[in-house]
Specification:
Length: 207
């Protein structure tokens, strides 16, 4: 039995596979990631609205007691969310170990159950070694995937939230944001394709 030709996967395919595997291996990690995404979106929104609420209260002549109560409530909410944000980051950090172990077991099982011809194939051993390296440690490529997921969806939800706010001010701001986002996406896509195209050469230097 010969090895199949190497497959090329896009970023979204890798993210989908990571999420699907996490749901199968350790679904709690997805819950922690979802919670921290929501907290990451709430904190900047509250930070943006807090000065506006205070300024509106002062200009409208709101009672001082009411103004202090609203400010204290929002400040307290920010403090709680800030503490929860750090706590969830630690939870995600430590629980990534469990998914690392899950993937390492999958790689080991593949190596033990694959055809003998594959085990004697140098290219297969190189890929297996790369797989172990990508899942070994909290700062491995796989572990950083969860950080990328949290960052991506936090930025996406934050962008949508602030886009809605800016749209009420001037629709041209939305056009500017969409243009800069599209340019950034195209540049990152080009960089990713270059990395993928030179992956074999990089592996040759490392081994």
């Amino acid at each position: 039995q010969t090895m199949e030709q190497d497959k090329k996967y896009q970023i979204l395919q890798n993210l989908t596979y990571c999420i699907r595997s996490t749901r199968q291996g350790y679904p709690k990690l997805l819950v922690f990631c979802l919670l921290i995404i929501l907290v990451n979106c709430l904190v900047p929104v509250i930070n943006a609205f807090l000065p506006k609420i205070v300024i509106d209260g002062i200009t409208e002549g709101a009672p001082l007691q009411r103004l202090l109560a609203v400010t204290a409530a929002l400040a307290g909410m920010l403090a709680v969310l800030g503490g929860l944000q750090k706590y969830l980051k630690q939870l995600v950090y430590w629980n990534k170990f469990k998914m690392n172990a899950w993937f390492l077991r999958q790689i080991t099982r593949k190596g033990l159950t694959t055809d003998y011809l594959n085990q004697e194939n140098e290219h297969f051993r190189t890929l297996q070694n790369e797989s172990f390296t990508s899942c070994n440690g909290n700062f491995s490529f796989h572990a950083q995937t969860y950080d990328a997921i949290v960052l991506f969806f936090s930025n996406l939800l934050g962008f949508l939230a602030f886009a809605g706010i800016l749209f009420t001010l001037n629709p041209l701001l939305i056009v500017f944001l969409c243009s800069t986002t599209l340019i950034s996406y195209l540049l990152n896509r080009r960089i990713t394709k270059w990395i993928e195209a030179n992956r074999e050469e990089k592996a040759g230097y490392e081994h």
